[in-house]
């Protein structure tokens, strides 16, 4: 792919309450891979009413930070964010523009008016041409996509890429961009927190997931009890959600959330490909299933063959005792 004179990679880092989202920070990893091919820098873009705290934490992860600060850039100000990103793209002429695959990230990249890749889970290369892997049909098909227009525009799925290692802090450059009145079509009157926002699977250090093998909603409560005891978050497979045991906000897998916790406990999970692909980046995996041939054991660090309805109460009691010591 001929990158021409375009070298730098712009990465929009979405924030909530002054903190960059993990899914956005993960974009810096494919951005670094792109920069190695173009010979440019990775420039993180922050937009908010106050970027000081986020800029300090982001600076060691990028070659530079562009901090667009002002009253126009409050959470949810999509029109202002998009207009500002367009100005930065025109000024810096980047080789690529990346963002996390959130509603805001998708809207901003789509409105740039360029060909874009949405919800990428992997980046490979065909020579100097980036090839993005995108799940289709609920994650049952993985499709490779090539965008040959410049800049390359893409959003990446949270949990698909690891966050970059910290290095020497790049410079933070304040950017003044006054949003013209005619650029703002919609203003946020009130923000209501959705249930899915309260279930933060992507940033969880511990996830306890229940599958169809839990047997019933009553027994699924054991998963919730163990997760609460460990200070973790409850995950679920699609069958458990379709049976109404827990809300869809808890779904882990290609059609749910891709996660990478330090500890992942799979309870009554068979290990279907669509689910495993969503948690294979976990640091340590414990699997409990009565079927010794269940595929989940192929990716588990520790496998327990047994009835989850009997194993989980024992685990819960043991953990309670150890925490009481």
Strand % is 25-35%
* Secondary-structure element string: EEEHHEHEHEHEEEEEEHEHEHEHEEH
By secondary-structure content and strand pairing, the structural class works out as: alpha/beta
Name of the CATH superfamily of the largest domain: HUPs
Q: Estimate the mean pLDDT confidence.
A: 90
Description:
There is one protein chain. The protein is of the alpha/beta class. It has two domains: 9-191, Rossmann fold; 196-324, Rossmann fold. The chain is built from ten helices and 17 strands. The strands form four sheets. Strands 7-11-6-1-4-5-12 form a seven-stranded parallel beta sheet, sandwiched between helices. It has a five-stranded parallel beta sheet with strand order 14-13-15-16-17. Strands 8-9-10 form a three-stranded antiparallel beta sheet, with no helix packed on it. The longest helix is centred in the last third of the chain and has 17 residues, at 308-324. The chain starts with 8 loop residues before the first strand and ends with a helix. 44% of the residues are buried.
Task: Looking at this protein, list some descriptive labels.
single chain; 325 residues; alpha/beta; Rossmann fold; 2 domains; seven-stranded parallel sheet; five-stranded parallel sheet; 10 helices; 25% strand; elongated
């Amino acid at each position: 792919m001929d990158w021409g004179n375009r070298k730098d990679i712009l990465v929009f880092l979405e924030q909530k309450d002054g903190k960059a989202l993990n899914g956005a920070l993960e974009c810096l990893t494919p951005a670094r891979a792109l920069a190695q091919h173009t010979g440019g820098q990775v420039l993180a873009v922050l937009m908010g009413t106050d970027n000081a705290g986020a800029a300090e934490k982001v600076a060691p992860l990028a070659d530079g930070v562009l901090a667009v600060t002002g009253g126009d850039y409050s959470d949810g100000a999509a029109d202002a964010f998009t207009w500002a990103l367009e100005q930065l793209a025109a000024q810096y002429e980047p080789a690529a523009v990346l963002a996390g695959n959130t509603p805001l990230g998708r809207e901003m990249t789509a409105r740039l008016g360029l060909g874009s890749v949405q919800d990428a889970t992997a980046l490979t290369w065909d020579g100097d041409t980036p090839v993005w892997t995108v799940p289709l049909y609920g994650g049952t098909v993985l499709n490779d996509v090539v965008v040959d227009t410049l800049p390359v525009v893409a959003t990446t799925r949270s949990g698909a890429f690891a966050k970059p290692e910290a290095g020497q802090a790049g410079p933070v450059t304040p950017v003044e961009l006054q949003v013209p009145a005619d650029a703002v079509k919609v203003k946020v009157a009130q923000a209501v927190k959705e249930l899915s926002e309260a279930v933060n699977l992507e940033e969880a250090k511990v996830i306890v997931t229940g599958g169809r093998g839990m047997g019933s909603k009553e027994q699924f409560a054991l998963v919730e009890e163990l997760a609460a005891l460990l200070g973790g978050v409850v995950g679920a497979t699609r069958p458990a959600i379709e049976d109404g045991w827990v809300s869809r906000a808890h779904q882990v897998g290609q059609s749910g959330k891709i996660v990478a916790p330090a500890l992942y406990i799979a309870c009554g999970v068979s290990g279907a490909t669509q689910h495993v692909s969503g948690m294979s980046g976990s640091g340590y995996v414990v699997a409990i299933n009565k079927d010794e041939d269940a595929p989940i054991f192929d990716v588990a660090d520790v496998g327990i063959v047994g009835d989850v309805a009997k194993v989980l109460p024992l685990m819960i009691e043991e953990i309670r005792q150890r925490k009481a010591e």
